Amino acid sequence: xxxxxxxxxxxxxxxxxxxxxxxxxxxxxxxxxxxxxxxxxxxxxxxxxxxxxxxxxxxxxxxxxxxxxxxxxxxxxxxxxxxxxxxxxxxxxxxxxxxxxxxxxxxxxxxxxxxxxxxxxxxxxxxxxxxxxxxxxxxxxxxxxxxxxxxxxxxx
Length: 156
Known about the structure:
Layout: H1 7-19, H2 24-36, H3 40-53, H4 58-70, H5 74-87, H6 92-104, H7 108-120, H8 126-138, H9 142-155
């Protein structure tokens, strides 16, 4: 959503950060806004700050991983997803993100396992089902693929 990355939204978030410079949440939210607006270096800087302020901020690791992935830094992205999962083994978004990283790298079984884990965690994120469905489809397991695509549509 480009509106979240708008100058107006980022200005508001910057004002919040100025009032609370030690709150990692503000940097994480603004980093996400920068990312949505395509300002990846600014996003990385904010996620770095959020993590410096709270080294166990698993959402910030996962968000930074996504930006690293967009920038083509696959190893850094994998390290951040792994750290996010190490901190919170029940964070479905990190499993989905890492699963996408694995799928694009041709590590189909690892990707499947991560999407499966997110689904076992009762994710409401349609991407877990959609991406697992793509793997089922590529393996000729069309019945399972259709079930996953249907679930993804119902969650979207």
